[in-house]
Amino acid sequence: MSWCSDNADWDDLLAYTTEKRVVVRHRWLGLVYYFSILAIVIYTIVGTIILQKGYAVNLPIKGGAVRSTVRARHDEIEWSSSFCDPAVKSGEFNATLPCVYPDYKANVLAKTTTGVSNGGLLVGTRVSVTRQELNTTLHGSVYEGWQDAPNGTKMSFYVTGAEDSTIMIQHSVSLETQRKFGGSTLMGNNALIVDTSNSDRPVARITNEQNTRGADVTTFSQANGDIVKMSDVLHVAGVRLDDYIPQHRESYRYEGVTITIAIRYAGQNTGGGGTSYSYEVATTALPGKYTEADEDSPTTRTVRDLRGVQVLFSQDGSELYVWSWYAFLLSWLSGAALIGIATTVANCFLKYLAPRRADYKLFVQSTTPDFSPDTDTDKQLLEDILVEKRRERGRYLQIRRKSILQVISGARPAAARP
Asked: How far apart are CA 128 and CA 372, in angstroms?
């Protein structure tokens, strides 16, 4: 162990091997190379770091909450709608049916449903009522089940004024998300993610996925929530209730439709500008429906099938950014990798494509002799070269040993002669 510590040369053990650097005096190659380097630097700073926000990462919205309620028009409902006809007595689809008043407060014509990641809302456009009786025929020890009563005709009604109703949306992100966005201490509204709990929030906008249709959202200054007209939601979603569903014989008003509204938060905690949010609407092929049954007696019940516009909410933070040293350094490392690629491309051009590539290789490449010689000439050549290499190394070691002895003996090494 003592021998290893006395004789070990850490400079030799930890020696670093580098490639030989050659300065190529060629103006056109230099112009192309340095222009490429400049373009990479500009792309890294402007394209990656600034435009693509390479200094930040997305903040996912976790633990948020959304609450929605529906309200009918306060003024008189228009009963002369084109789809209302009290003379029609039909339980199945018809373009016109008897209409009922949109009494949403009774929790019959409007329901709270489960949504994508938060609760949703079903605003009724058609309700059907069917009386059923229990078939007491036994199959083993199990009743056959419920069936429509012989004298219990199915009755269907359209809900008038659905397009004229309004939806109040209240949403908030979790305190943990607020802390991640604003840091360990929340300092004023500039460090907060704006939601409907902020009375001075900017006016939001509701748009479709392609951003081709949109509408402004009414904001309550008392921080009660955002008011959205159902007619605006349907317009932005591209849905008209009396249109027929593709490949179906029923209309959206009769069958129902499901619309998703993503609450998209935007902003960053790396500078001014604050945060904001918007609503993005999308339409699905899923009908909006809710079925419930009330037992009138042990053997009879009334089934209500509510169809309408089901609105499902979700919260999205894909445009919400927080500072990240990891992302910032990764952006610079990607730029450095591009510079390395540019250098490799330039070297490959000089070695394999340039007109004087053979001359260039004389400066950057060294060829060893054949270490597995097949002929006597190759064997002699290898031996002569190895002898010369050993002589060079021996001279180096002799000079090094002499210098070490001079240092040990206290003598100053002689100055090198020109």
From this structure: 93
Q: Is residue 292 part of a domain?
A: yes
pTM (two decimals): 0.70
Q: How many CB atoms lie within 10 A of CB 120?
A: 22
Quick: pLDDT tens for 186-227.
444 455 888 888 877 888 888 888 777 777 776 665 567 888
> Distance (Å, rounded) from C-alpha 319 to C-alpha 328?
17
Query: Over the Cα atoms of the chain, what is R_g?
Result: 40
Residue 11 lies in a domain: no
Classify residue 57 by burial, with Cβ atoms within 10 Å: 0-12, 13-18, 19+. middle
pLDDT digits (tens, 9 = 90+) for 279-320: 999 999 888 888 888 888 888 888 889 999 999 999 988 888
What pLDDT does 327 receive?
86
Does residue 275 sit in the same domain as residue 294?
yes
Containing H/E element for 400? helix 376-409
Spell out the residues 6+ positions from residue 238 whose beta carbon is closer than 8 angstroms to its own.
208, 213, 283
Kindly state whether residues 276 and 143 are assigned to the same domain: yes
Question: Residue 3 domain-assigned?
Answer: no
Distances, alpha carbon 97 to alpha carbons 54, 82, 248, 272, in Å: 58, 10, 19, 56
In the structure encoding, which two tokens stand for residue 263, read together?
Answer: 């609450």
Question: Which tokens in the block code for residue 301?
Answer: 């019940």
Domain of 319?
A: 58-323
**Same-domain check for residues 318 and 343:** no
How many domains in the chain?
3
- Residues with Cβ < 8 Å from 61, sequence gap 6 or more? 173, 174, 177, 265, 315, 316, 317, 320
